[in-house]
Design goal:
disordered C terminus
């Protein structure tokens, strides 16, 4: 036996430990998987040994292998065996492996319940500590339910090490087993006043995590946290407490009035940037919640803004980002305080970090006013030219549009300037992904601002001619800027009455280009609108020749689109051609001619002395009918108008429109249906007759050739050659060397015009501002001579100084009948059903069903005992009478006692009352000392309530004077 034991120990000397395993893996990088597979086979042999130290060594190696991504779930029983060892060194290895290998859904966890309970109740604090640390990684709902009482008893341990770990462990228990929150809450509340700072900070951490999702349940702990905030010097714990107060203040605004002073003291005194940031965040939340009841808080806001400026000017990028983030919160409620630092925020646009630049852009959104909108947009456009990176340039473009369009264009005073800015954005960013946004803005402004439609039509007509062909080529990867052509084509067609040269615009719309199909469809449809307006104008002038020329031009251009691969383009072009053919047929009846060329030759014109002839009535009526198709104004539609359309009576959306065909077995029908699978010879002959080839004429071939050459020239992907390139090098000299070189007169100063068209509006605006200021100063001088003692209360930053809007925005939107914008939308703001904090939304003030049953049982038992005493004793003794009298008196005093003494939590909560109101109550009570008999019980309750709160809060004790 002894020889066998010695032999086993001798063999163990050659086993690999963890260090050998790591060294071997590093030496076998080329065949790591093969080496690890070999090591796993050796570990399996080690796990079969009886020696616990050998198993512990094997489990430690498995733990490292698991870190490399290999599965070790097959060794679960061996890990539990090592966890149950009496040696602390082996137990620690086992719990480490379990924390990495096990998860809450592991089936082996049911075997660990008694073992973990034994470790938690161990006399050694280290055994219990390692059990708590490991349990936090793999605790399940069953383990939480079974071990909740054992962990709760450790919260009252005499050792601070165990108390701290148990308090932290309870948070994991609450997430898995929410029913443990209510019985454990009193003990958790006690740990806030624990003498050990580690336990105290652990309790603060747990409650802050619970209150982050459900702050209203922990409002009663405000006095305790207030005391900790004013006495503690632990910055980490102060950050947690201040975060909690930031969540509690919106629920109880009176709480914020007590927080302002200590928070401002911390802002002045602390040197920790993290604590400073949290204090500023909470001060902002406090001022938002009490803004109506505390008007004199400008000093606190200025203090926060000054401290945030220090953060933004810091060289640390993280502090700069946090400063901008907090500044955006102040901007929502106090924009004027932030607008004073506009130069600092604009300087952040040149920062190297892209996240800081984006955060500065968010701040600019709230700093805009009617005065500085043009200036800010000018700075952003200039910055956009210098910026690098497509994503940041896209964000800049989107932010410019968002700044200008906010609040239904409330800050835009001149929409001609805004349309010019949109066109400049199109020219700056040809490959942007926000082309749809720009197109939407162009359409919205043209529809809603009637005074600017003429300018919009002029800009869109020039855009159709100047938009680069390579940018119009559709490519999803290159961007969506070609969507602006959609808006340009629609605006030009809808408001074609403002066009200067409609025929040129018609040609640009029908020019063959490689465009997306939906844009081509809009081009054809709006070209038909434009043609209709031109026909109506010719009809009013009774110019038949111009009508025929327009029909020929339109038919020649649209024929190319009939063969498009997109079905909507085909349909629109075919419908337009049919309409024009109908008009041509009516015009042929003028002279009875059949060909269009004969029609043009026979028509009288100015060259043969005739002005015009009468247009056939049928053709004139047809043109008017065409015009009626496009009459009427289009109003913008509400965003959610479709959802508010009422469902007609009798309409069932779930009912089949056409019932589905019945499924029949293939054997029943047999060969009858097989004939449909093949095409008959008669069908083939009819199709061949339909598709007879027509030989094109020479003119048609020439037109097709010119169209093909034009398409090749406009196609950027087509390799273009020239006749000159094919010549040899000696013959390529076209006489360019003989051209004399002209000298430049250097005396003339060189001027580079880099200003944009939109800058003109800013210069004009600045000139008008200067003129207004001069007029005001002149008027002020005259008034000062007349009345020197009058005081001028008008400030320079008043609303009267803001520029007025030149153009009016139409706010009318179309809605279905019986619907309005005031109807509430159904927004699902419920919490995530998988969120574990949802189950922790428990009202801790309301007793549970078990507690109510226990209280009812105690009351019933008391009633039975008193009834038994009275029934058995005919004449009660003096002691019994005294007891009954005392109980009655206590009940009466409890009923008369104010609610503040009955409900400790509300008493603690409302302890943060205004001291000025207490002083007023004191003076009123002193005046009414002589009228005690006239005072009612309700007034006493109110006074006792307010005075009792201050005692519970521990801030001031004025109620002792009125005892």
């Amino acid at each position: 036996m002894a020889l066998k034991k010695v032999k086993g120990n001798f063999e163990r000397m050659f086993d690999k430990n963890l260090t050998d395993l790591v060294r071997g893996i590093r030496n076998n990088k080329d065949n790591e998987a093969k080496y690890i597979a070999q090591c796993i086979e050796e570990i399996k042999l080690e796990l079969r040994q009886d020696n616990i130290n050998v198993k512990c060594n094997a489990v430690s190696k498995l733990t490292y292998i698991q870190m490399l991504g290999y599965d070790i779930s097959w060794a679960g029983f061996n890990i539990i065996e090592v966890m149950s060892s009496s040696k602390f060194t082996c137990k620690r290895v086992g719990y480490l492996a379990a924390s990495q290998c096990f998860h809450p859904d592991s089936e082996l966890l049911m075997l660990t319940t008694n073992m973990v309970r034994k470790d938690l109740n161990s006399q050694s604090q280290y055994d219990a500590g390692v059990a708590l640390s490991g349990l936090s990684c793999f605790i399940s709902a069953d383990l939480s339910r079974d071990l909740a009482n054992d962990i709760m008893t450790l919260m009252s341990s005499t050792k601070p090490y165990l108390r701290m770990k148990a308090v932290l462990m309870m948070y994991k228990v609450f997430l898995r087993y929410p029913e443990a929150l209510k019985p454990a809450f009193p003990k958790l509340k006690e740990k806030l006043e624990d003498p050990d700072p580690g336990v105290q900070s652990a309790a603060v951490n747990v409650i802050c995590e619970l209150a982050r999702k459900n702050p209203k349940n922990y409002l009663s702990l405000a006095p305790i946290f207030f005391k900790l905030m004013t006495t503690s010097t632990n910055n980490w714990m102060l950050i947690k407490i201040i975060k909690l107060f930031g969540a509690l203040t919106p629920l109880e605004p009176r709480l914020g009035k007590k927080l302002i002073e200590p928070l401002t003291n911390l802002i002045h005194s602390t040197s920790a940037m993290s604590l400073l940031y949290e204090c500023i965040n909470t001060v902002i939340a406090v001022l938002i919640s009490i803004s109506s009841g505390m008007p004199n808080h400008s000093a606190s806001i200025q203090l926060c803004v000054q401290k945030l400026r220090i953060l933004i000017e810091d060289s640390d990028q993280n502090l700069k980002y946090l400063g901008l983030l907090a500044m955006s919160k102040i901007l929502k409620t106090h924009p004027k305080s932030v607008q004073a630092h506009k130069d600092l925020i604009l300087a952040c646009l040149d920062d190297k970090d892209e996240s800081i630049r984006l955060r500065a852009l968010d701040l600019l959104y709230g700093m805009v006013s009617k005065k500085n909108l043009m200036e800010i947009v000018k700075r952003l456009l200039g910055h956009m030219e210098r910026a690098e990176g497509s994503t940041y340039r896209d964000e800049l473009l989107y932010k410019v549009i968002e700044i200008c369009s906010q609040g239904s264009y409330q800050y835009v005073t001149n929409f001609e300037w805004y349309l010019t800015v949109l066109v400049e954005l199109i020219q700056l960013e040809a490959n942007s992904k926000h082309g749809t946004v720009i197109a939407t803005q162009l359409l919205d402004v043209a529809i809603r601002v009637q005074a600017v439609r003429e300018f919009a039509v002029t800009e869109m007509a020039s855009l159709l001619n100047t938009f680069p062909a390579n940018a119009a080529h559709w490519d999803a990867s290159s961007g969506t800027m070609n969507e602006v052509l959609y808006a340009a084509g629609w605006i030009v067609g809808e408001f074609s009455g403002f066009l200067v040269d409609p025929e040129d615009t018609l040609k640009s719309l029908l020019k063959p280009r490689q465009l997306p199909d939906h844009i081509q469809a809009v081009y054809i449809h709006n070209a038909l609108k434009l043609l209709t307006r031109m026909l109506v104008r010719s009809l009013d002038e009774e110019n038949v020749r111009e009508i025929v020329c327009l029909c020929n031009l339109f038919e020649e251009k649209v024929t190319h689109f009939v063969s498009s691969g997109h079905i909507e383009v085909q349909e629109r072009s075919s419908s337009a051609l049919i309409m024009i053919q109908m008009l041509r047929d009516e015009l042929k009846s003028v002279n009875g001619t059949e060909s269009e060329r004969d029609l043009l030759d026979d028509l009288p014109g100015p060259e043969n002395g005739n002005v015009s002839t009468g247009i056939p009535p049928a053709a004139a009526q047809l043109i008017r009918d065409f015009a009626n198709l496009f009459t009427g104004d289009l109003n913008p539609v509400a965003p959610k108008a479709q959802k508010k359309v009422p469902l007609p009576e009798g309409l069932d959306l779930h009912k089949w429109i056409n019932s589905p065909p019945e499924l029949s077995s293939p054997s029943s029908e047999g060969e009858d249906d097989m004939g449909d699978l093949f095409v008959s010879s008669a069908d083939l002959q009819s199709r061949a007759e339909r598709k007879k080839y027509v030989e094109p004429t020479g003119e048609e071939l020439e037109k097709m050739r010119e169209a093909r050459k034009m398409e090749q020239n406009n196609n950027p992907h087509y390799l273009k050659g020239s006749a000159r390139d094919s010549l040899p090098m000696k013959l390529r000299n076209d006489g360019c060397d003989d051209i004399p070189i002209a000298e430049i007169a250097l005396d003339v100063p060189l001027t580079v015009h880099s200003t944009k068209r939109s800058d003109k509006y800013l210069v004009d605006d600045q000139k008008t501002d200067k003129q207004k200021k001069k007029k005001k100063t002149k008027k002020g001088d005259k008034k000062s001579h007349k009345s020197k003692h009058k005081i001028n209360y008008s400030s320079s930053g008043s609303e009267s100084d803001e520029p007025q809007q030149v153009h009016v925005v139409n706010t009318l939107i179309e809605m279905p009948e019986g619907a309005s914008l005031s109807e509430a939308e159904e927004n699902d703001k419920s919490m995530d059903p998988n969120d574990p904090h949802r189950a922790l939304d428990i009202d801790l003030d309301v007793p549970s069903a078990k507690e109510e049953e226990e209280t009812h049982k105690k009351r019933d038992a008391k009633k039975k005992t008193t009834s038994l005493v009275v029934s058995h004793e005919e004449i009660p003794s003096a002691a019994v009478v005294k007891k009954v009298k005392k109980e009655k008196k206590s009940e009466k005093s409890r009923k008369k006692e104010p609610k503040s003494h009955r409900n400790d939590e509300s008493h603690d909560l409302l302890g943060f009352t205004k001291e000025s109101s207490l002083i007023e109550e004191k003076t009123k009570r002193k005046k009414k000392k002589g009228d005690k008999e006239k005072s009612t019980e309700n007034s006493k309750k109110k006074l006792d309530l307010k005075l009792g709160y201050e005692e519970a809060a521990g801030i001031s004790t004025p109620s002792k004077e009125f005892a």
